[in-house]
Amino acid sequence: MKTNVCLGIVVLANAIGNVLLGYGMRQVGDISSYSPWALVSSGVAAMANPWVLGGVALLLVFFVAHAIVLSWADLSYVLLVTSIGYGLVAALSWAFLGERISAQRWLGTAVITAGVMLVGRTQVSTADQ
């Protein structure tokens, strides 16, 4: 049960964090110059954006939860199960960021989802829980 709850936190924090980060960085604007001044200026603008900060905070939650669940379950299981987040990111990007997602990309997302369902039917871990 604890593994499944933690996996849910990993998937949601990663997907929502990345969508917030993407939204915020669109507001910051294009980083087309790699001069030190442009990078510092863009970095300051990004760190002043609440969407970027929210995304970073959720990605920090993702990292901590991911590390915790890896102490309980096999890496091969965790990475495959958390890949369901790819589908969630596609859906959230379409719904909230207005991204156009091709039929080919949706098909790839469906293949990933089918693989996750297959892996989800296997034993969770070889480690002691």
Report on this model:
This protein is an all-alpha fold. The protein has one domain. The chain is 77% helix and 0% strand. It has 6 helices and no strands. It has helices spanning 2-28, 36-47, 50-70, 75-82, 84-96, 103-120. Helix 1 (2-28) packs antiparallel against helix 3 and helix 5 packs antiparallel against helix 6 (103-120). The chain starts with a helix and ends in a 9-residue tail after the last helix.
The dominant shape is globular
Euclidean distance between termini CA atoms: 10 Å
Return Rg in Å: 17 Å
SS summary, helix count: 6
Helix content: over 70%
Domain count: the total is 1
Structure class: mainly alpha
Main sheet? none
Mean pLDDT: 88
Q: Give the helices and strands as they follow along the chain.
A: HHHHHH
Secondary structure: number of strands: 0
Share of residues in strands: under 5%
Low-confidence stretches: none
Give a short overview.
With 129 residues, this protein is an all-alpha fold. Helix content is 77%, strand content 0%. The protein contains 6 helices and no strands.
Looking at this protein, list some descriptive labels.
mainly alpha, 129 residues, 6 helices, 0% strand
Topology:
Blueprint: H1 2-28, H2 36-47, H3 50-70, H4 75-82, H5 84-96, H6 103-120
